[in-house]
């Protein structure tokens, strides 16, 4: 097992290098120098200043290979430069204070999605074409097609402005400091309800679908028949034998859909004014705060890579065939 | 996995009769898919005929009628500048559908070229291309899109290009898998033995046989691209005003959400209906092409971001 985990880790290292390469390529995508492009968007004085900053930061007058090498050197020391925003704080610090929020949101979403989609998918599969199955199928299609920002707006109208039941922006109320401890906790939680609801909706549809599909394939297998023939109750056959096997592909799908889930935080955080990495990214793009954009991109991709690695290793843990079968099993 | 694809492929090949007729017979039974197809056709017609159908000029402000509620003159109300929402949405349909088609076209073209290279050549070429796919999939798409857009001027062309250039990984995997399955088949071996060039074998013999799952991927890719575009426009980083798109009508509408719900409601509903119809159509096509595509489905499912 350790050997398998190590091999996965080694395979991930070139990808890490690749992340920096793609991110670097993004800066140089723009026709002409990024410095020129920026000049039009800022006032004359600040653009001259930004020009200077960019030149220093990326050494834009040097050959590409040298620029990349220098940039990589600074990344290794976790030096992402300073923000172009007036506060000019180190990028790492800016991202660091927003990272926990985004992580919290995504982990909560993931847990909720798994906790709900597994039973939903399981029941739809074991009662294929029942009313429950039909209703969930409709939910799946609608869930796939609903734009998350639109759902967010509708919920805001419904709960936030019309009824005033739930807060619709930020993470804390203005009077947070004056609340009692338990009131503070509730205040924080209630701010999270709508964002998490929105972020969970689309993913829930997808995962219920995969779970149903996976379960349908498993219950047609011979070993399920033999479990039944052995005289086991339906409860044990489905709840134990079938479920365990049906969960296996879900681990991979979970890993593969992480980028989508994390990408979704951009929209959810922007709408609900949640100070996370997604909101930071949008702000940075509007302000053309290049160091923050680059830092954000590298860190988000690295996190996704790490999460994929965890999913891979988890898959190896739960399914020994993967560990011993070498590569090819996963894809 | 490779062997099961091959097995199902030969099972389909063994199926009797004209494949096109078999497809239609299976497809015609799926009422939801047909409904989806009809809605998609209607949307295309509405978008093409927008200049004829739109009751008002989509960009004509009317300062006496700002944020007007839905009425007989303006069935879907008016926006902050008094522009007719229905007319703007009809023109917005043009943007959404165009972005969907073109960006998926770009992604598919890249996917076909890279996927057939990887699948036919194998070896180092294959390994390199597939690592590139893995690498691109590590980037959460919205972050990557935003990072690229920060360096470009957002216009409908850059949006289409950027969505296409970040969305080719699924098709690449799909085409490669088909090529791996088809590469060893008799008709390919025969062409090789009579000295056909690699390009000819790929273009004339393998690719036509690999197109069915690509077609499905395209049908399901278009709604994903439409969602992405409307998301970007909603953030204000997509297609820029005064060009109307469903996303940027929503973006402008969200500031007036408490007094003018129609600005937020209808464009979102339009996106929902469009994406739903495309998905129903795509799934219908795929099911009609089954059982060959069972494998393709699983691959595809992982590419929606």
Word description of this protein:
The complex is a heterodimer of chains A (331) and B (305). Chain A is mainly alpha-helical. Chain A contains 13 helices and no strands. In chain A, helix 5 packs parallel to helix 12, helix 7 (148-162) packs antiparallel against helix 8 and helix 10 (234-271) runs antiparallel to helix 12. Chain A is globular and about 80 Å long. Residues 32-44 and 326-331 of chain A have low confidence and may be disordered. Chain B has helices at 2-14, 19-28, 31-48, 50-53, 85-121, 123-138, 141-150, 156-165, 169-182, 186-193, 198-235, 246-253, 261-289, 294-301. In chain B, helix 5 (85-121) packs parallel to helix 9 (169-182), helix 6 (123-138) packs antiparallel against helix 9 and helix 11 (198-235) packs parallel to helix 12 (246-253). The longest helix of chain B has 38 residues, at 198-235.
The termini of chain A sit apart by: 19 Å
What is the H-and-E element order of chain A? HHHHHHHHHHHHH
Largest sheet of chain B: none
The percentage of residues in β strands of chain B lies in under 5%
Helix content of chain A: over 70%
Helix and strand composition category of chain A: mainly alpha
Largest sheet of chain A: none
Shape of chain A: globular
Query: What oligomeric state best describes the polypeptide chains here?
Result: heterodimer
Instruction: State the low-pLDDT regions of chain A, or none.
Output: 32-44, 326-331
Rg of chain B computed from alpha carbons, rounded to a whole number of angstroms:
22 Å
Mean residue pLDDT of chain B:
82
- End-to-end Cα distance of chain B: 24 Å
Which chain pair shows the most residues in contact?
A-B, 62 and 53 residues
Helices and strands of chain B, in N-to-C order? HHHHHHHHHHHHHH
Number of strands of chain A: 0
Mean pLDDT of chain A, nearest integer?
Answer: 81
Rg over C-alpha atoms of chain A, rounded to the nearest angstrom: 24 Å
Instruction: Tally the helices of chain B.
Output: 14
Number of helices of chain A: 13
């Amino acid at each position: 097992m350790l050997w398998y985990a190590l091999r996965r880790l080694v395979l991930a290292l070139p990808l890490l290098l690749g992340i920096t390469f793609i991110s670097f390529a993004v800066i140089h995508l723009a026709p002409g120098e990024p410095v020129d492009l920026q000049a039009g968007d800022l006032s004359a004085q600040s653009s001259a200043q930004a020009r200077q900053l960019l030149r220093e930061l990326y050494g834009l007058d040097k050959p590409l290979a040298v620029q990349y090498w220098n940039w990589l050197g600074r990344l290794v020391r976790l030096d992402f430069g300073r923000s172009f925003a007036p506060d000019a704080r180190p990028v790492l610090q800016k991202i660091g204070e927003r990272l926990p929020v985004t992580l919290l949101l995504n982990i909560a979403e993931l847990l909720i999605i798994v906790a709900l989609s597994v039973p939903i998918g399981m029941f739809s599969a074991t009662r294929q074409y029942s009313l429950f199955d039909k209703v969930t199928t409709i939910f799946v299609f609608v869930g796939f097609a609903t734009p998350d920002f639109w759902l967010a707006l509708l919920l805001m109208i419904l709960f936030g402005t019309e009824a005033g039941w739930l807060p619709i922006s930020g993470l804390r109320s203005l009077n947070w400091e004056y609340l009692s401890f338990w009131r503070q906790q509730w205040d924080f939680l209630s701010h999270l309800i709508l964002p998490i609801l929105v972020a969970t909706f689309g993913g829930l549809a997808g995962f219920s679908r995969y779970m149903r599909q996976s379960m349908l394939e498993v219950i047609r297998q011979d070993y399920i028949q033999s479990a039944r023939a052995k005289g086991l109750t339906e409860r044990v056959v489905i709840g134990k034998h079938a479920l365990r096997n049906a969960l296996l592909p879900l681990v991979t799908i979970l890993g593969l859909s992480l980028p989508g889930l994390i990408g979704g935080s951009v929209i959810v955080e922007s709408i609900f004014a949640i100070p996370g990495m997604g909101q930071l990214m949008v702000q940075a793009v509007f302000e053309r705060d290049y160091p923050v954009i680059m830092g954000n991109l590298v860190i988000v991709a690295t996190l996704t890579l790490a999460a994929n690695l965890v999913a891979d290793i988890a898959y190896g843990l739960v399914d020994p065939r993967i560990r011993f079968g070498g590569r090819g099993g996963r894809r | 996995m490779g062997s099961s694809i091959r097995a199902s492929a030969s099972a389909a090949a063994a199926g009797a009769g004209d494949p096109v007729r078999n497809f239609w017979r299976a497809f015609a039974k799926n009422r939801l898919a047909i409904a989806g197809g009809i809605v998609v056709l209607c949307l295309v017609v509405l978008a093409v005929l927008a200049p004829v159908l739109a009751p008002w000029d989509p960009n004509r402000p009317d300062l006496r009628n700002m944020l007007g509620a839905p009425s007989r003159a303006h069935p879907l109300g008016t926006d902050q500048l008094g522009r007719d929402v229905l007319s703007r949405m009809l023109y917005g349909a043009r943007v959404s559908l165009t972005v969907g088609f073109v960006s998926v076209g770009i992604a598919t073209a890249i996917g076909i070229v890279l996927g057939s290279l990887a699948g036919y050549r194998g070896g180092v070429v294959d390994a390199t291309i597939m690592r590139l796919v893995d690498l691109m999939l590590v980037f959460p798409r919205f972050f990557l899109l935003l990072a690229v857009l920060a360096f470009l001027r957002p216009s409908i062309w850059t949006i289409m290009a950027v969505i296409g250039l970040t969305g080719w990984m699924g098709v690449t995997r799909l085409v490669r898998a088909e090529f791996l399955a088809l590469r060893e088949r008799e008709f390919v071996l025969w062409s090789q033995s009579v000295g056909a060039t690699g390009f000819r074998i790929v273009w004339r013999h393998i690719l036509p046989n690999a197109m069915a799952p690509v077609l499905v991927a395209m049908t399901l890719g278009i709604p994903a691209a439409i969602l992405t575009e409307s998301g970007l426009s909603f953030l204000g980083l997509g297609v820029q005003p005064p060009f109307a798109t469903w996303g940027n009508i929503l973006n402008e509408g969200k500031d007036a959400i408490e007094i003018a719900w129609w600005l937020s409601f209808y464009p979102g509903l339009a996106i929902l209906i469009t994406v739903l119809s495309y998905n129903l159509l795509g799934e219908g096509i795929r099911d009609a092409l089954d059982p060959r595509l069972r494998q393709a489905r699983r691959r595809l499912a992982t590419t929606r971001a």
